[in-house]
């Protein structure tokens, strides 16, 4: 048996126990974004599997949180993305698929929550093609949250053999020495420029100091 808890907005928290195998079966089907009927003493409750704590070694559920939803109010939930099709930029151009997001947050009535959102990769024909959150199309009264320009998936150009060799090739002692020498020369040049600027500033200060000591025409007449 797995310990669990049932709670909700304005609801009293109830401690429960679940059959391990039965819960895992439902969890695989529903995930955390599909409404399920939870029977407590033969009374049904519309709930979402809100959180599942797992054993740190066995990856088995050891505690479950059920959230009882209000069917008359919109809720926020994370919905997984399912990538379908093949990107021509990968198949034909040998590009590398880069997935930035695997799920998105949505706002919807509990009964309208999608189980998943499909992302069609066939529109990625070149390396400049990108699928963003703003490109997601959902049916019904479902709103996808997040920045509209956030990238979901894109295709990068493949790394050439020459670039790959350069990445894998260790830096030679001569190259390292040349780099250090170049850095030292830059540092010396910067220091020389700084010293020159400080010298100019000091000279200007002396001129101003002398100018302060020069007598005005009126003082000269008095003398």
Summarize the structure.
Helix content is 31%, strand content 32%.
Explain the overall architecture.
The protein is α+β, with helices and mostly antiparallel strands. It folds into 3 domains: 2-68, Ribosomal Protein L25, Chain P (Beta Barrel), CATH 2.40.240; 75-166, Beta Complex (RNA Polymerase Alpha Subunit, Chain A, domain 2), CATH 2.170.120.20; 172-200. 31% of the residues lie in helices and 32% in strands. It has 5 helices and 12 strands. It has helices at 20-30, 88-91, 161-168, 173-213, 217-222; strands at 2-8, 14-18, 36-40, 43-54, 61-68, 75-84, 96-99, 103-108, 117-120, 130-132, 143-144, 151-156. Strands 2-1-5-4-3 form a 5-stranded mixed β-sheet. The chain has a 4-stranded mixed β-sheet with strand order 9-6-8-11, with no helix packed on it. A hairpin with a 5-residue loop joins strand 1 and strand 2 (14-18). The radius of gyration is 34 Å and the shape is elongated. The protein starts with a strand and ends with a helix. Residues 200-223 have low confidence and may be disordered.
Low-confidence stretches: 200-223
User: How do the strands of the widest beta sheet line up side by side?
Assistant: 2-1-5-4-3
Number of helices: 5
CATH superfamily caption of the largest domain: Ribosomal protein L25, C-terminal domain
Question: Which descriptor suits the 3D outline?
Answer: elongated
Kindly provide the name of the CATH class of the largest domain.
Mainly Beta
- H and E order: EEHEEEEHEEEEEEHHH
| Proportion of helical residues | 25-40%
* Corresponding CATH architecture of the largest domain: Beta Complex
What is the count of distinct domains? Answer: 3
- Overall SS class: alpha+beta
Strand content: 25-35%
CA-CA gap between termini: 110 Å
Q: What value does the Rg take, in angstroms?
A: 34 Å
Number of strands: 12
CATH fold node name of the largest domain: RNA Polymerase Alpha Subunit, Chain A, domain 2
Average pLDDT, rounded to a whole number, is 80
Give a quick account of the main beta sheet: strands, pairing sense, barrel closure.
5 strands, mixed
């Amino acid at each position: 048996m797995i310990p669990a808890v049932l709670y909700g907005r304005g609801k009293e928290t109830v401690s429960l126990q679940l059959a391990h195998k039965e819960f895992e079966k439902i969890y695989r089907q529903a995930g955390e974004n599909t409404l399920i009927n939870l029977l407590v003493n033969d009374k049904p409750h519309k709930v979402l599997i809100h959180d599942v704590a797992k054993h740190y070694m066995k990856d088995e559920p050891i505690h479950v949180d059920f959230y009882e939803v209000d069917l008359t109010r919109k809720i926020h939930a994370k919905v997984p993305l399912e990538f379908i099709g093949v990107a021509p930029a990968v198949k034909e151009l040998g590009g590398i698929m880069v997935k930035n997001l695997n799920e998105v947050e949505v706002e919807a009535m509990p009964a309208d929550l999608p189980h998943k959102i499909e992302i069609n990769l066939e529109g990625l024909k070149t390396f400049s093609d990108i699928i963003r959150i703003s490109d997601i199309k959902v049916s019904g009264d479902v709103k996808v949250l997040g920045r509209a320009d956030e990238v979901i998936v894109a295709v990068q150009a493949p790394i050439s053999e020459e670039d790959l060799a350069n990445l894998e090739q260790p830096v030679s002692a001569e190259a390292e020495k040349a780099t250090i020498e170049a850095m030292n020369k830059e540092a010396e040049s910067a220091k020389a420029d700084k010293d020159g600027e400080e010298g100019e500033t000091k000279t200007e200060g002396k001129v101003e100091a002398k100018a302060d000591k020069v007598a005005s025409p009126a003082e000269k007449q008095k003398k």
